[in-house]
Structures are given as structure tokens and as C-alpha cells.
User: What shape does this take?
Amino acid sequence: MNKTKFGQFGGQYVPETIMNALHELEAAYRDYQHDPEFLKEYRYYLKQYVGRPSPLYFAEGLTKRLGGAKIYLKREDLNHTGAHKINNVMGQLLLAKRMGKTKVIAETGAGQHGVATATGAALFGMECTVYMGEEDIERQALNVFRMELLGATVVKVTSGTKTLKDATNEAIRSWIHRVEDTFYVIGSVVGPAPYPEMVRDFQKVIGEEARAQILESEGCLPDAVIACVGGGSNAMGIFHAFIGDEEVDLIGVEGAGKGIETGLHAAAIAEGKVGVLHGMKTFLLQDQQGNITPAYSVSAGLDYPGIGPEHAALYERQRASYVSVTDDEAIEALNALCLSDGILPALESAHAIATVMKLAPTMRADQILVVNLSGRGDKDVHTIAAYQKGEL
Amino acid sequence: MNRIDKTFQALQAEGKKALITYMVAGDPSLEETVDLVVAKAEAGADVVELGIPFSDPLADGAVIQAAAQRSLDRGTTTDGVFKAVRKIRALSQVPLVFLVYFNTILAYGPEVFLNQCKEAGVDGLIIPDLPFEEKEEISHLMDDSVYLITLVAPTSEQRIQELVREAKGFVYCISTLGITGGGTGFFSGLEEFLARVKSETYTPIALGFGITKREQVKPLLPMVDGLIMGSKIVDVIHQSQGDPVELDVFVRSIKMEFE
Assistant: This one.
């Protein structure tokens, strides 16, 4: 098997101009991934700056309301900048620093990864440029303002669908142009190797903590671990530590948007075909000609036409299952968690909660569900308000 | 013999260099693409690169992205492009090379795609997102009737030898760090880069990306066996709304510099 691939998925489908940069990145990553000094520094920032470990909270209210399995929430929403994205950014920026790169670029959809990258770049004194689709800039004006406050330059991307897919194209194009002094901080477990593996490694702390925490509080492993999937970094982060525990079900939740049957969705595994985009081979939403079709979800972070290649491989070998949840179900779950436990989840994470709401009532009271609450919903209040007014 | 080899051999026998021009199939329409390719060939294009439009052309700048989008909006399909190639072949024997992103081939089915190329008379494929590391995806299906064109970048450095070892047709040397359309000027070590590529292969080498003006041609010719013009041609076609006469005039003005 090719070392850049997970089964048939992944690889390095990129222009020749950046192949050397990928090899350089891979070599640096291999050097540092087990380097005690590097890991010490990474852990230092996760603890002192990000605020890890994040709690594994027993959601009393939701558990009681649903009347079935016990529900635990991995509180990534309590991290600095409000989501899991910062874990990965810390790792990549520390690597960039060791590689002597002073400029970083990133793509962003909802803006969470852009904000996290801008935050880290400010911390480490790096020049930061974030590529963001014109449509997302309008939907997530608050995050654009945050990035600018943090000293980043936000570049508006007007090509194609003007969303995350196109922002990623533009970030890769810009990397081709600036490859000699610039580090590209990819925000999810997507892109050419070694990114999917590296991003997963910088997110696997979520699952490592959650596994230890559930063993401590319950003395056993959960029946299932549930996480939402756009590109899939929070899901890979929490799944990874449990992959060897065959008795634990791993469930990824894609955005079904307005319903799979309407065509307005982001369910790359449910509806996609194997193809190549953004340097990787994976499941993609595409037409018969192989042109990528726009994804849709009320949640900008799930609005991506592909899925990380390791997820594609987990799906193919049936180690993880993937379901999808509509906008309506996600919003209902968001409202439920607000009222049951006083937690406003991000719209992305609300998709995972919606799946819990379907599963928990069918389970026994001694069964356990662990859910990755990947981010907080403050960024989404305008979207939720618009949705409630019937504008979405 | 592959038409690309035939063309380069004939040029070399006369001590001449090749003018390779690009265009996006289906912009402004596939019918016009047929006329435009024939017009180009008659005006002196030695090899024609035909882009199959793709929704996410990672290696292309704004001009070609926009042309691809226009073509897709008109409903261009891979089958439609093959049909246009067959029409071209009835009128011209100019070597034709597809510039095609790998997902287009995957969606069509690599084996069927290659068979269609052979039957329609396509001589080579440039797949910008299929680097050396992944070329096995398709190279095992190919024979000398359709070449997989090798791309070499200024950043390829120690990879050059390996990349060009089995190069066929011509080696596509990228002039800049960047995407098509240039605008940033050539890579500063261009001359050494081209000399190094040349020293590693007997296959003709051609330079592309960022060649937009006739004044650029003469100084570059001694370093290469051919020059590739892409975005500028796409722009000329777009500005003239696909007028073959204007394209003819433009290509002739460039070709004069090759004499």
C-alpha cells in the first residue's frame, strides 16, 4: 500500500510545482511527530493557551429528556476561539516555525479555522492570509471582522460557488505561487498527503482525552462515539483513539441540508462517488462529467462537497458508519440542547446532537453515547435567527 | 508514429522551434472550437492543446478559469469534446493534446477515456493534478498512440532526472512559481533550469506559463524546442467572440518571431 493513502483513498493529486513542498512538509512532520521537544511545546500551548483538557460533561438534562442512553459531551466548544480547530492550528504553526516559515495561508468556510489560524499567527508573530468565499464572507461577517482584528488579511474568493471549495482552490493556487516561504495551514483532514494524517494527529488529543475521561467516570467504554463531518477533522480527532476498540460504534454525521432528495445537501458519503479534488482521492459530490457539484448545509462548516480520505477508508472497511441529518433536525437539536443543558452548540455540532436524539431513546439506560461538541454556537446566532424567520 | 514526434522531428530537421497553443474546448462553443483549432493550425500552431473544462481547475489562473466556466455553462461534456476532436481530425492532422484534470478522466473511466482518445486522434494528455507519484493511475493503460506529457517545475530540482526519464512527446517546463496566466514574471533561474532539464533528456522541451507577448519569444527560443501560449490565446478568442480571422492574425504575428 502507498504510504500516502488510506486504502485507495488520499494520495497527492497536486501540480508538480508543490510536490517538493509536500515532500519537505512530510519530512519535517516525520522528524517532529515523535520529537519530545516538539510534543512538549505543542502540549504546553494546548494546556496553557487553548485550555485543554476539555471536560467530558455528562449531559444530565438531555439524557433525562431523551430517556435512554447516558449522553456525554466532549466540550471542544470551551477551547480558546470556540471550537476544536485551534488544536490543529497550534500543531501546524509550531511545525511551520520549526521549518523556518514566517508566512502562513489558510482557507476557511464558516471562519472558525480562519479565526484559529489568525489567532495562532498573532501569537507566533507570523504573517497570515486567509482565503474565504464571497458567499461565506457575507454569511459570517463576524468572523471576518475577528480575523482582521487579529491582524490577518482576508482575501475574498469570487470563483466557482464562492464557498469553502473555492477558497481551498484559491489557497492552493496561492501556495503554488508562494511555496518557497509560505506554510499552508489546512483546516481539516483533507488535501494531499501528509495533511489528512497530520491534521488527524493534531486533533487526536480529543479522543485520547475522551477515552480516558469516560473510563474514569464510567469505568467502561461508550457504546458509540458520534461526531459531525464536513471535511471531518473533529470526527477523526475523536474517533482515532477508539478505532482499535471494535465494540465502540463510530458514527459520523453529514449535513443532509434541505433533504438528500432535494439535491441541496452536503452528504458526500451518502451520495458521492469516488473522485479527486483538492489533492486527494475520496468520495465527492459530482456530476456525470466529474464536475464538482455545490454542497449545501445551513451549517457553513459542513458545506463541503468531499470528506477526508481516512473517513472514506473507515466507511469502506465498515469500521465507521455515516448518517445524515437535515437542517431542520439540526436546528431542533440545537434548541433542545439550549433548553435541556444551557449549552448553545455550533450548527455543525448540532448535527451530532440530532443523531443522539434519534439514537438515545432506543437504547438502555446503562448504555453510553459520547458526542463531540466540536464548537459553540455564538457564531451562528444570525443564521439561527434568519432560519427562525423562515429566511433560510 | 505519434503526431507530436512527427512534428518535432520535422521542425528539428529545419532547425525550427514549435509554437504550442492552448484553448478551452467549448469556449465560446464546441462548433467554434473546431474552426478555431483549424485556423490556428493553418496560422502556424505546431501543436494544439485543448482544455477539457473542469469545475475546479487548480492549476489555472483567472482567465482560463473563466473560460472553463463559460464552457461548462454552455453544457460542454467530455463526449462533446471527443466529437469536436473527430471533426477536427477530418480537417487537420495538427497534433492535439488534451489538458484535462484527473477527475474528468476518473468520471469517464480511464480505460474508456483512453480508447476514445485513440479513436478520435488525440496524441497526448497533460494532467496537471496527476504528478509523478500518482501517474500509475493511468500510465499502465497507455501506449505510444497517446502520450502522458511530463510537467517539470522550477521547484522540481532533484526530481528532474526521475521526472523526465520516460518523458515522451515533449517535456512541459513551467516558467514560473504560480498558475497559468503568469503576471508575476519568470522564475529568476529560468536559464539554468531549462539547461538542466535539457541535459537530462533527448525529448524536446517546451516552456509555458506567462508567455503573453511576441517580444518574449526571440530571447526564449534558444533555450527550448518549443513555446506554449495559453491564457493569452484564450483571451484573444474571448475578446473576439471566437472569430477565427482574429485568431489567425494573432497566431501569425507570434509565429513570425519563430522564423
Summary: The two ends of chain B are 26 Å apart (CA to CA). The beta strands of chain B are 18-24, 47-51, 96-99, 124-126, 147-148, 150-152, 171-174, 205-208, 226-229. The CA atoms of residues 212 and 231 of chain B lie 8 Å apart.
